[in-house]
Model the fold of this input.
Amino acid sequence: MEEYQAPKHILQVLKEIEYEEALKLGDQRYVDTRAARGSQKTLFRLGRKFGLDLNSGAFFPPTSKHVLFFGHTGSGKTTELRHYAKELSGPSRYLVVEVDIPEELDIHNLQYADTLMAMARSLLKRLAETQVDLGADALAELEKWFCERVLNSDVAKEFSAQIGSGIEAKGGIPYLVNLFSRFTVAFKTNATYKDSMRRVIRDTFAMFACAFNNLLRRAEAALEAGGIATRVLFVIDGTDKLRGEDRSAFFVQDAERLLAIDAHVIYAAPLSLKYEGNTGKLDDLVLPMIKLYERDGARCEAGWSALRCILLKRADRSLFAGEAEIAQIIERCGGHPREMLRLLKLCCEFEESGLIDAATVEAAIKQLASEYRRFLEPEDYPLLANIDRNPVHGGNDERTRKLLYNLALLEYNDGSWRRSHPAVRLLDGYISAKTAQQASGG
Done:
């Protein structure tokens, strides 16, 4: 493999920076952040939840397990999950099936029916890649449900005729992958049929769940016989981007439907959901944020080192006027990787001198701060200033959860303490609130 070289031109940095996309396995830009997060035990705990002891290799998986993997949006959950999943995979472990929700479905209008269809499609594609022998009748029950209840439903006949054209194979994994693929595309792009298909799935859900569960058991038996894996593990990415009512509907109201699938599943979840306290039977685990400082204010060298390494894999050291500019970018991101890359992008847009100098960094930080000003309300500033004075008692009301979701408030060490986003502290509203509290002795 050719050795990776960080971009050495500002325009090349802008071209290649994609802070909304997670790194795939093998990407040379990946930086191990476990020490920086204080998350050395997070992977071990995740393995234990799914019946695997990563130290001894002992494996006693539960019948099913659905885990919410919490963390700030953009904090690196998906990238870390991919590396964690790799550790959980293997002949005596799991076959990992990744489902990219934003890629496959409409994240702004997502329901459990859409997700389950995408899971079935991804499972079938993954099984086809392994070339595992499922047996002649392993797909029969799922094919029966799809053909009898979905394709022949009154609301779906017109659409069924459209998607049926061009499908030559009748039966088997390729046939079902093709059908599921066309329906998941419809869930993402075709509003006319989306609600109709959801009703069909809801009305025949018991049959679908039974067919899905039976396919999983047959697949796992075949995978184990072939020495490929023992169980299947789904990693559902993108569900942490759900907001408000959609988030509640998916993770709370429809949780029983998700749990009806006897599978092993990890869902990326927004940190604010954890504090709503109504996730019921869904298990959870938190990915800690990268720390620049400890709770007592002591500098966390592992955090600074990790973020500097991440930054210099996106922009060559020669593009920065000095270490002071690098340190300022890191300082103002608060330990949040995506926020640091947002600042880098802004620096590249403001740069005029040929180098990212102090003036450029200052302009980028002010721009980032102004973007927070647009959604913060006057009542937010006293709350943030108070949390900074006493980070242990951050509250758990709707306003606090909103601040966590929008990253104006950042959480560290599995939630044991919080601090406001460093860019927010530059805003007049925050400075006024802090000054007023100091004057009152509060």
About this structure: The two ends are 58 Å apart (CA to CA). Residues 380-440 form one domain. The chain has 21 helices and seven strands. The chain has a mean pLDDT of 88.
